[in-house]
Every structure is written in structure tokens, then in C-alpha cells.
Amino acid sequence: MKEDFLRHDARDEKAIDQRILEIVRATPGGIVSGEELSSRLKVSRTAVWKHIKSLKDLGYRIEAVPSVGYRLVAVPDLLLPAEIAVGLMTERIGRQIISFRETDSTNETAFKLAEEGAPEGTVVLAESQRRGKGRMGRRWESPPGMNLYCSIILRPAILPLQAVQMTFLSAVAVARAVEETTRLVPTIKWPNDVLLSGRKVAGLLNEMGAETEKVNFIILGIGVNINMDAGQFPADLRSPATSLRMETGGAVDRKEFTRALIRALDSLYAAFLVGDYGVVRDEWLARCGMIGRRVHVSYRDSVVAGVATGIDDYGALLLTLDDGCVERVLAGDVTLV
């Protein structure tokens, strides 16, 4: 099945569709004549009309006012590149945005793009996923038009052992975006869950292309439940789940949330690149609801219990056991006792 997608690339000349939207939005009164669009875009009036039709096909409501011009009436509730790019003003992340109506997995798509040389900061979005990927091979439920399914390509000059630090960076960015757009106060659960009222609202799945001593690229996979209702979650979830809509009692603007997340990622990543991982680590610890509490960590057939006291520079959970020894836990599912 061929996957439809749209692209925004701030490094190149902007697509005509996006330029039309920018011009209309910036014009007092919001009405622009076809002649003016033709002149400013240096294309024919017929080409302008074709691009207006293309925008309408995407769900934009654009009225043709007789003898006056075109007016933008409403925008679709879709994570379109032209909409996410509005006012983004980031340094690295979001300079290129690719949006799919449907894909198998944004992580898989981003991984292929990274292998083909896609630039750092490329954001891959999808309205739905056929095989959304969760941690440890689990499925991530991905109904269309409800949530955020997002993957970002990064190319930091770090060792493979340091790549896990990007998971903690992602979690902090999601928490910041939740606070900015809803005023809710999320907590973070090791290793990669963001919670509201003790229920999972977001999960992270980072993947890597690397050599023995070199990271070629990292894919930050981020899934956030934004506007799902309780009845849309599958009955066999391993842990309770929620959405921003369920917690706030009203719909949340997905475009606004996505922009907030990209800006948070861009800011945190900039700090990381100049050696300020400690800023990320400290904020993660401040937001983690399990530090100082007794937990069980299960992995396959083993269970270890102790008090969670922190994380090390490589992302391992530090547990103080009953005998006073400190154990580094690299993987597993955590349960608060």
C-alpha cells in the first residue's frame, strides 16, 4: 500500500501550498486576490487555483470571494507540516517535517529515512499507524486522528552507551509539553513512561543505528494519547492508560501540543549538545514519582526489589537492596510497592 505524505523543509524554498497559507494569514482582512498570489509566488493564476484546490482536498476551508480573492475559513484537524511549522522557530528539530496519513510505524519510516541520509531534526508524523511499536515488542494502539505518533531523527556525536540519555531527554520534553498545553502536572516512570494520575499518557521508544564506537543516528519515538476516550483503549493493556482529553475533560489541540513538544525537544537537545546532560537528568529526577520509594522490577522470569534512588549516566535504575548494596537495573517493568 502506497503511503501518502506531505513534507515541509525549512532549508529549501517553501512549498507553494505553505506559502499560500502564510500569505493569506499575514494579510489584513484575510482575503488575497489570485492576481496577488500569482505575482508573489511567480506562478500562473491557473497554478494558484490548482494549489488552492489541493489545500481544499486536504481539508482546508478556503472561500473564493467573487471579484475579491481567496479567504481561509478553517483548517483541518490534521498534523500537516504546514500547520506544525507555523511559528515553530526551532534551531534543529522540525526544520524538516514529513506527515503521513497512515504508515506501518513512524519509527520504521524514520529509521529508513535516516539510513537514506535524512538530516538531523527530521520529524516524522502519522495520523495513524498499522503496526505502532511499543517497548519490548509490544503494540502501541494507534487510532486515526486522535493522538500523536511521532519520530525524530537525531545524529549526536556520542558513543552508543550514551544513547539511552536521549530517552530521558524525550520524557522531559513530553512532560514540558503536557504542562504547557494543559497545565496538568505529569510524572515520569523509569524507563520511558509519562504518567498522569498514575496512568500512562505517553510512551517512548528510541532506536539506534550505530557502529561499535559511533552513533550514526538515533530515532526518538514518541506516542502521546491526546484525545482518546476510555472506551477506545484495548482491554488487555498491561497498565492503566489515560489521555489528555480524559484528564482535562475537553479536547486538546494536537497541533499546539506537537509544536510545544518539538520546541521542548529542540531546547533540551541544544543543552545536551553543549554538555549539559545534567540539566536533563536533574529535571527527570525531579519529575520521577518513584525516587525514594520501594519498587519491584520484573524482567522475564526474575524480580528484584529495593528502593529506587536514582539513575546513572547510562540510564540504569539504581536500586538500594535490603542488604544495603546498590544494584544497577538496565531493563524491566517497574511496580511501586
UniProtKB/TrEMBL annotation:
<dbReference type="InterPro" id="IPR036388">
    <property type="entry name" value="WH-like_DNA-bd_sf"/>
</dbReference>
<dbReference type="InterPro" id="IPR004408">
    <property type="entry name" value="Biotin_CoA_COase_ligase"/>
</dbReference>
<feature type="domain" description="BPL/LPL catalytic">
    <location>
        <begin position="82"/>
        <end position="273"/>
    </location>
</feature>
<feature type="DNA-binding region" description="H-T-H motif">
    <location>
        <begin position="34"/>
        <end position="53"/>
    </location>
</feature>
<dbReference type="Pfam" id="PF03099">
    <property type="entry name" value="BPL_LplA_LipB"/>
</dbReference>
<dbReference type="InterPro" id="IPR036390">
    <property type="entry name" value="WH_DNA-bd_sf"/>
</dbReference>
<dbReference type="InterPro" id="IPR004143">
    <property type="entry name" value="BPL_LPL_catalytic"/>
</dbReference>
<keyword id="KW-0678">Repressor</keyword>
<keyword id="KW-0805">Transcription regulation</keyword>
<feature type="binding site">
    <location>
        <position position="129"/>
    </location>
    <ligand>
        <name>biotin</name>
    </ligand>
</feature>
<dbReference type="InterPro" id="IPR008988">
    <property type="entry name" value="Transcriptional_repressor_C"/>
</dbReference>
<comment type="similarity">
    <text>Belongs to the biotin--protein ligase family.</text>
</comment>
<keyword id="KW-0092">Biotin</keyword>
<keyword id="KW-0547">Nucleotide-binding</keyword>
<dbReference type="InterPro" id="IPR045864">
    <property type="entry name" value="aa-tRNA-synth_II/BPL/LPL"/>
</dbReference>
<dbReference type="InterPro" id="IPR003142">
    <property type="entry name" value="BPL_C"/>
</dbReference>
<keyword id="KW-0804">Transcription</keyword>
<dbReference type="Pfam" id="PF08279">
    <property type="entry name" value="HTH_11"/>
</dbReference>
<dbReference type="InterPro" id="IPR013196">
    <property type="entry name" value="HTH_11"/>
</dbReference>
<keyword id="KW-0067">ATP-binding</keyword>
<protein>
    <recommendedName>
        <fullName>Bifunctional ligase/repressor BirA</fullName>
        <ecNumber>6.3.4.15</ecNumber>
    </recommendedName>
</protein>
<dbReference type="InterPro" id="IPR011991">
    <property type="entry name" value="ArsR-like_HTH"/>
</dbReference>
<feature type="binding site">
    <location>
        <begin position="105"/>
        <end position="107"/>
    </location>
    <ligand>
        <name>biotin</name>
    </ligand>
</feature>
<keyword id="KW-0436">Ligase</keyword>
<dbReference type="GO" id="GO:0004077">
    <property type="term" value="F:biotin--[biotin carboxyl-carrier protein] ligase activity"/>
</dbReference>
<feature type="binding site">
    <location>
        <position position="200"/>
    </location>
    <ligand>
        <name>biotin</name>
    </ligand>
</feature>
<comment type="function">
    <text>Acts both as a biotin--[acetyl-CoA-carboxylase] ligase and a repressor.</text>
</comment>
<dbReference type="InterPro" id="IPR030855">
    <property type="entry name" value="Bifunct_BirA"/>
</dbReference>
<dbReference type="Pfam" id="PF02237">
    <property type="entry name" value="BPL_C"/>
</dbReference>
<keyword id="KW-0238">DNA-binding</keyword>
